[in-house]
Amino acid sequence: MAQSIKGIKVLIVDDEPNILQFLEMGLHNEGFQVETAQDGPEGIALAETFMPHVVILDVMMPGMDGFQVCQALKNLKPVAVIMLTAKEEIEDRVKGLTLGADDYMSKPFSFDELLARIQARLRNQFPHLLEEVTIGSFVVDASRKELRYRGRPLELSPTEFELLKHLVFNHGYVLSKSAILDQVWGYDFGGEENIVEVYIRSLREKLQDREHRVIRTIRGAGYRVDLQ
Predict the structure, then answer these.
(1) Cα-based distances in Å from 197 to 111, 181, 192, 215
(2) Is the pLDDT score of 2 beyond 60?
(3) Residue range 166-187: average pLDDT?
(4) Of 11, 92, 101, 190, whose CA is between 20 and 30 Å from 217?
(5) From CA 158, how far away is CA 38, in angstroms rounded?
(6) What keywords are assigned to this protein (predicted)?
């Protein structure tokens, strides 16, 4: 599991398995601790034990809809609720906000926009959580796009920062080139997989990782960060 950002927890409640899987993977790779539920009662029960800071909540679910779930969640503890809907109905938006929802997004939506809205809610409701993350010898400051290794600031390009952050958050796991391309460069990247090798080589130089003990090459599989 990726290192969580200061223990920030996100619960996703949606009856569409594809959306659950997509959001869980994306938020996990951003460093959040993530749990999922496929219906309202399961989401409420999970919230009582998981105690999320942010809930991504679908409105249109069978049985107990998102409005009822939102109201129940707001009675449990302080939590930021971002509601998802396939409809653009003003009445639904007003109803959700009246019941305590903190934000509202219409499907389909971009992951980057959802991430920005999560971060906005965290800055507004849980500002104390958005601090530096220490993972082994690495310190990641996602808000400033800064990364330090053994106390030394690394001079990284934006892509190098995202790549190293992704590797560090998933330390101990072997990540294939294709998986790295999807998460760092994006699913619509049209270039060659060899671009990953070029950036890995640059990162090793900046980490002074001449013997490849920090970023290891797993032959035929990909790359793995080992914490020092």
Answers:
(1) 26, 11, 10, 11
(2) no
(3) 86
(4) 190
(5) 36
(6) DNA-binding, Phosphoprotein, Transcription, Transcription regulation, Two-component regulatory system
* Helix (H), strand (E) at residue 76: helix 66-76
Q: How far apart are CA 179 and CA 36, in angstroms?
A: 22
Strand partners, 56: 12, 82
Rounded to 5°, angle at Cα 114 from 51 and 90: 100
Calpha distance 158→205 (Å, rounded): 16
pLDDT digits (tens, 9 = 90+) for 37-65: 999 999 999 999 999 999 999 998 988 98
**Contact (CB, 8 A) for 83 and 42:** no
Residue 49 per-residue DSSP state: H
Distances (CA, A) of 19 to 23, 24, 37: 6, 8, 11
Residue 108 and residue 51: Cα distance in Å, rounded? Answer: 27
89, amino acid identity: E
CA-angle at 11, arms to 78 and 52, nearest 5° = 30
